[in-house]
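input
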Amino acid sequence: MNAFNRVVVILALLAIMVLSAIFFIAPLRVLGLVIPFLQQLETNLASMTGLSMLVRLGGGLVFVFLVWVCCATILWLELRRPRARAIRVQKVSGGEAELTTDSIASRLEYNIDQLADVIKVKPIISAGRKGVRVDLELETNPEIEVPMKTQEVQQLTKDILESRMGLKLETVRVVIRHAPYPKGAPAKSGGMPSH
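output
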């Protein structure tokens, strides 16, 4: 979306430059063209009554709303901070090194996928103020012990990022989704006995 924002800003600036040049070089000609148009517009607006006045007001409000939505969207896209595509390695002597977030994600995905009872893993990497933020979406065997598996995954993530990749870990968030139980599997009794 950055390219779109740049195009909009460039076109707006060019239009302002051209229009200001025309106005300041030949102000009487510009006013001679604009004033009759404005007088005609004033006459048309003054002649509106009743229903046509309500239609004009409603149309004006809709137009203003659409303009504001477009402007607010462009401003938000321009001001929001883009996600970092590379993260600086902390432990490098004599120079600088950066790792792409895709590389970090693939390495975590490969290593965490090797753990027992992990069926699928999707890492989402972002740069934080104090280091790397990792969100892990795991699909696991439905019978795992969640606290132990979470701790194992967090420890492995920390080891990979800090010891093997030279990055500083800020947070690890693990979201676990259990795979469905196989059809026809006997249900474990854990509920209240029926009388």
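quick obs: The radius of gyration is 31 Å.
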